[in-house]
Amino acid sequence: MFRIIKWLIALPLGAFIFFNAYVYGNIITYRAVAPNKTAFMAMRMRQFQSEGKDVALDYRWVPYDRISVNLKKALIASEDAKFAEHGGFDWGGIQYAIKRNKQSGEVKAGGSTISQQLAKNLFLNESRSYIRKGEEAAITAMMEAVTDKDRIFELYLNAIEWHYGVFGAEAASQYFYKRPAANLTKQQAAKLAARVPAPLFYADNPKSKRLRNKTNIILRRMGSAELPESDMD
């Protein structure tokens, strides 16, 4: 009996250690090398295939300086106003999310920062559970410890899902506006940022009033969006 208990503890612990060692190795690699594909992309493409949808992956990596400042500001304004100053976690947002989850009785809100969203996109999936959120937090802490903010943001900008099979700023800019990500206007950037929390919903509902309203809110907030230091030069 004791041996069984020992194995029941050792197996998940070993899997946890192995997975996090794998993740850490990739985090180090991604400081200089662009991912070929993220775990979230792979998961999403498998989902489309299982649903019988003929969707091709459109993922085009571009360096940080070839992405419009407008889009950077729009995403900061929309997703994580404190990105430039926090260490990966917005504790106020987390407390609010915990309160909402307690009220609903399930994990609905995550309080996720850009760093946490990137951790999910690179290595996890979209499941909502406290175990997944815990793993996301561990990955976020590792990433913030060894990766500068510009690189985290660059990875994030290139990994975001924007439509069926469309990932990253360049692919999204070309898909929606037939122009490179470097040339996005404020209006275009705000509308792209507004899609981020629910890209497939907005893909199916492109004239959603919610999308228009959120775009206008982001436009108003963009002026005060604080970018990482290198963008302030």
UniProtKB/TrEMBL annotation:
Q: Which InterPro entries match?
A: Glyco_trans_51, Lysozyme-like_dom_sf, PBP_transglycosylase, Pep_trsgly
UniProt key word DNA damage: no
**GO BP, sorted A to Z:** cell wall organization; peptidoglycan biosynthetic process; regulation of cell shape
Superkingdom of origin: Bacteria
Which pathway, per its entry? Cell wall biogenesis; peptidoglycan biosynthesis
Task: Cite a GO CC annotation.
Answer: plasma membrane
Which catalysed reactions does the entry list for this protein?
[GlcNAc-(1->4)-Mur2Ac(oyl-L-Ala-gamma-D-Glu-L-Lys-D-Ala-D-Ala)](n)-di-trans,octa-cis-undecaprenyl diphosphate + beta-D-GlcNAc-(1->4)-Mur2Ac(oyl-L-Ala-gamma-D-Glu-L-Lys-D-Ala-D-Ala)-di-trans,octa-cis-undecaprenyl diphosphate = [GlcNAc-(1->4)-Mur2Ac(oyl-L-Ala-gamma-D-Glu-L-Lys-D-Ala-D-Ala)](n+1)-di-trans,octa-cis-undecaprenyl diphosphate + di-trans,octa-cis-undecaprenyl diphosphate + H(+)
Q: How does it sit in the membrane?
A: Single-pass membrane protein
Q: Which UniProt keywords apply?
A: Cell inner membrane, Cell membrane, Cell shape, Cell wall biogenesis/degradation, Glycosyltransferase, Membrane, Peptidoglycan synthesis, Transferase, Transmembrane, Transmembrane helix
Enzyme class (EC, first level) = transferase
Tell me which stretches of the chain form a coiled coil. Answer: none
- Cite the GO molecular-function annotations of the record: pentosyltransferase activity; peptidoglycan glycosyltransferase activity
All residue ranges annotated as the Glycosyl transferase family domain in the record: 59-222
NCBIfam families in the record: mono_pep_trsgly (TIGR02070)
Describe its function.
Peptidoglycan polymerase that catalyzes glycan chain elongation from lipid-linked precursors.
Give the record's family classification: Belongs to the glycosyltransferase 51 family.
Q: What is this protein called?
A: Biosynthetic peptidoglycan transglycosylase
Organism whose genome encodes this protein: Neisseria sicca ATCC 29256
Write the lineage as a comma-separated list.
Bacteria, Pseudomonadati, Pseudomonadota, Betaproteobacteria, Neisseriales
